[in-house]
Amino acid sequence: MSGRKLVAENRRARRDYEIEDTLETGIVLQGSEVKSLRLGKANIAESYASIEDGGLYLINADIPIYPAANRFNHEPKRKRKLLVHAREISRIAARIEREGRTAVPLKLYFNPRGIAKLELGIAKGRKTVDKRHAVKQRDWARDKQRLLKEKG
C-alpha cells in the first residue's frame, strides 16, 4: 500500500462478508467531493455497488459537504459512477445475478498519482455462525504465531 493515501475503509465488510475477489475502480467525482476527500472525510460503511443502466454505481456513500465550496457544493449521498471496463461490468453482473454475490466497497484512497480510487470486493454474505468461526480462526492463528515466537 505504499504511496496510497487512505481516505476511508469499510472494516465491517470483512466481518460481514467473505471477500472472494477484489477490483480497483476509478470513481467520478465533482470538485468539492475531491476537496472533501483530501481532508480525509468520507464514510463507505453503509454503501454498496449496483449495476444500473449498463454502468456500475456506488450507492449510499457519504462524502460530506466541503464548506468552502459554498453554492457549488455536491449532494453528500448522491449516486456516483464507478469507472470499470465493460468486460469487468459484465463479469461482475454475472457473479451478482447467478451466484448471489454482492459488490461491497472496501477502501477509498488516492493512488500515488493523486487519483481517487475505490477497492471493490465481490463478496458472499456470512451468517452469524460463520462470523464466530472466522473470529475463532483468527484468534487461533494469532495465538499460534505467539507460541511459535516464544518457542523459537
Automatic annotation (TrEMBL):
<keyword id="KW-0694">RNA-binding</keyword>
<comment type="function">
    <text>Required for rescue of stalled ribosomes mediated by trans-translation. Binds to transfer-messenger RNA (tmRNA), required for stable association of tmRNA with ribosomes. tmRNA and SmpB together mimic tRNA shape, replacing the anticodon stem-loop with SmpB. tmRNA is encoded by the ssrA gene; the 2 termini fold to resemble tRNA(Ala) and it encodes a 'tag peptide', a short internal open reading frame. During trans-translation Ala-aminoacylated tmRNA acts like a tRNA, entering the A-site of stalled ribosomes, displacing the stalled mRNA.</text>
</comment>
<comment type="similarity">
    <text>Belongs to the SmpB family.</text>
</comment>
<dbReference type="InterPro" id="IPR000037">
    <property type="entry name" value="SsrA-bd_prot"/>
</dbReference>
<keyword id="KW-0963">Cytoplasm</keyword>
<dbReference type="InterPro" id="IPR023620">
    <property type="entry name" value="SmpB"/>
</dbReference>
<dbReference type="InterPro" id="IPR020081">
    <property type="entry name" value="SsrA-bd_prot_CS"/>
</dbReference>
<protein>
    <recommendedName>
        <fullName>SsrA-binding protein</fullName>
    </recommendedName>
</protein>
<dbReference type="Pfam" id="PF01668">
    <property type="entry name" value="SmpB"/>
</dbReference>
